[in-house]
What does this fold into?
Amino acid sequence: MPVETSAAPLPSLAAPLTGPVSVLVVDDDAGSLALLRAILEPLGQNVVAARSGEEALRLSAAEEFAVVLLDVAMPGMDGLETARRMKADESLRHVPIIFLTGAAERAEIARGYSAGAVDYLLRPYEPEILRSKVQVFVDLFRLRRQAEILTHRALHDALTGLPNRTLLLDRLEIALARVDRTQKPVALLFIDLDRFKQVNDTLGHHAGDQLLIDVGGALQRAIRASDTAARYGGDEFVVLCDGVTGREEAERIASRIEHALERVPVRASIGIALAERPDTAPEELIREADAAMLVAKASATR
It folds into this structure.
């Protein structure tokens, strides 16, 4: 596979929405858990039970919950400490917590809200009120997931799942802005599949689509964790390599991509462009990498 490098000029960026979601209820008393399950059953959600704060944290790390109903007075790690640990965890701090208690004085309620509670429920529970509060957070959970899905679809290629051109440009702009601070250049690899049209013409578009999916997977396996592989359009892909040590490292990444694509199997032409200053325009760097790719493709046909 030919690889051509070119220096850029330095001119003046899914869970179901309608199915059951998970609700965590935490209480050391088995009878209380059974009662909560019975009250919540009409909502048709997946009710998960924990008998301790430690178990609640383990379950929360493994599964996403729409809301947590948390008993305040538990032996060992009580509800307040459990809530504090959840809110200290970046992946859990957004999960709403409703405290459950038999009696709550003003000072205790204040401590609960400080620990991260969004509400308090007093025993004996009013089933309709409890279900209504939980349903609100179930609906909010679905809305948040819907927003996440729509955002992902707007920024990713529907076929390969790779970042699309919009997300690539955004990440490229951020990477270029860091060049002054890191003192490391940004490399852009423009990849064009050779004879892809023949695959569509001879084997059909389904085979072509599967080939693009396989190429996307191969690129992700070949690049560094900090790199971005994007589908630029058609049979064109771009790999953004942020903070490379220089041209040699970019060429090593291109070589790994070459070997990964050989196992698909498919051949491609790769052009490399480097930017060493933050005022490099993202679009110009892409044009330089594209031009380098065309040189590589032309040399392969000679």
Observations:
- The domain at 22-153 is CATH 3.40.50.2300 (Rossmann fold).
